[in-house]
Amino acid sequence: MNWPSPEQSALALVTPKRAEIVDLNLPAGGERFAIDTTCGRLAAYRAGGGPIVLLAHGFGGSSSDFNAFVPALLAHGFAIAALDFAGQGHSSGEIATIPDGAAALQALQARTGRFHAVIAHSLGCAITVESMTSGLEVERVVFIAPPRRYGDYVLHIAQQHGWTEDYVAAVLVELLKLGVDTARLDVPNQVTGFTQPALILHSDNDRILPLQFGQAVAQAWPGSILLPQPGLGHRRILSDPSVIERAVGFIAD
Fold it and tell me: The pTM is what?
């Protein structure tokens, strides 16, 4: 088969396609600022007063994915903090790995102060978990359509392209050189010792990250709550009023 080199394939796995840039819906008094990280200069945002809620977007997205959440959070007296991960939104850079994203969230917390809660979507959930394992402080967690294991993503791509086992093994070696340890990036395994209250919202027809992934995370996270959502897919779930109400209500409880 005429595949790219394993190095090229590994780079492709961590290179997001930059979507059309949509600005985060900041209210008057909100600000955008920059954070310098090892993976580039990242666009960051904050607005409002009160306890801070971190917003962590998924791969190929941006902070604006949470535009529907911002008014509800501010109306409940929360502040919001967010950033665009490397190579996405208004941020510079080209590759976006989970470890780099985790470090970026800690850099944001160092700038804005401790987070009361986090609302994360898709790969942003895995980035949040990785950051929490290395010191990110949050008191409550809402995950929307979380992934299960990074290896699931690699396997999905491998099946699409017909990669052999040997070729996959070579790609995993190259990913490790980029700081992506696929054996360790396993959300259910990572959350087993977490004690923060967690709400997991996942659509029953998500074709990107199936509901069973959210179920696996919920089963592993002690005391977490899983609320399957009917017919909202992977992205439409972010604008559903009932999802927003449940997420904000959980944080405010």
Answer: 0.96
